Design the sequence.
């Protein structure tokens, strides 16, 4: 489904991603982990069309998105839940959600998509007319994920969905991520909570300084001493 080959991204003269290869199969949930500054958010934003790569291929179902304008990424089936949510705080929850379904194909399914989002996040049912900026952090994350789902994507990009959330809310959020994936949506999950990411993902990539330094089955990676020591503090 998603096939990234030789991806290179730079900020001026400073390289952010170097010759990066990555795959996500149809309906697969793949994790990307690594320390701060490893290039995780740059990767997500590039795959969403928010950053233009210097070189490389971003293949999605046979189409090279790296050769297309940024708005074509959404039309091709990519949706992003950005770090820090980036909601329109003065707009209502309903208005924020509906922004996700502006393309004709998604707009035609808007009512059904909204029902699905409310079924996934029942707490939003009574808040549709509420300004998004007045919601709790957990509810705002629900809206951010719901907005992406309103686009009816085949590939969902999640950038640090647990950021700033209480542990109990994180559990609820990742239970929803499991349900989204079980419904057939492929997911690329960038997450600093490596334990949760590896529990959710079938496969994972470890990034350091813009390069993939390890990859494999998530359970296998979690069993490696260097991963446990570097990211979990366990010997």
Sequence:
């Amino acid at each position: 489904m998603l096939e990234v080959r030789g991806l290179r991204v730079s900020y001026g003269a400073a390289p952010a991603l170097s010759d990066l290869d990555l795959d996500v199969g149809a309906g697969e949930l793949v994790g990307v982990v690594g320390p701060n500054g490893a290039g995780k958010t740059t990767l997500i934003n590039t795959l969403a069309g928010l950053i233009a790569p210097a070189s490389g291929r971003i293949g999605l179902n046979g189409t090279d998105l790296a050769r297309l304008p940024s708005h074509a990424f959404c039309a091709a089936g990519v949706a992003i839940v950005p770090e820090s949510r980036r909601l329109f705080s003065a707009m209502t929850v309903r208005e924020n959600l509906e922004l996700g379904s502006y393309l004709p194909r998604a707009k035609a399914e808007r009512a059904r998509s909204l029902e699905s989002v409310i079924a996934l996040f029942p707490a939003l049912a009574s808040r549709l007319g509420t300004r998004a900026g007045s919601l709790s952090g957990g509810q705002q994350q629900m809206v951010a994920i719901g907005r992406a789902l309103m686009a009816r994507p085949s590939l969902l990009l999640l950038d640090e969905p647990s950021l700033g959330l209480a542990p109990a809310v994180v559990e609820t959020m990742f239970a929803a991520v499991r349900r989204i994936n079980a419904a057939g949506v492929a997911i690329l999950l960038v997450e600093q909570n490596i334990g949760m990411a590896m529990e959710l993902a079938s496969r994972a990539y470890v990034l350091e300084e813009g390069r993939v330094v390890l990859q494999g089955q998530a359970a296998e990676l979690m069993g490696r001493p260097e991963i446990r020591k570097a990211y979990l503090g366990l010997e």
Remarks:
- The chain has a mean pLDDT of 94.
- The beta strands are 2-11, 14-24, 29-33, 55-60, 63-64, 78-81, 155-159, 186-190, 203-208, 211-217.
- The first strand starts at residue 2 and ends at 11.
- Residues 30 and 204 are 5 Å apart (CA to CA).
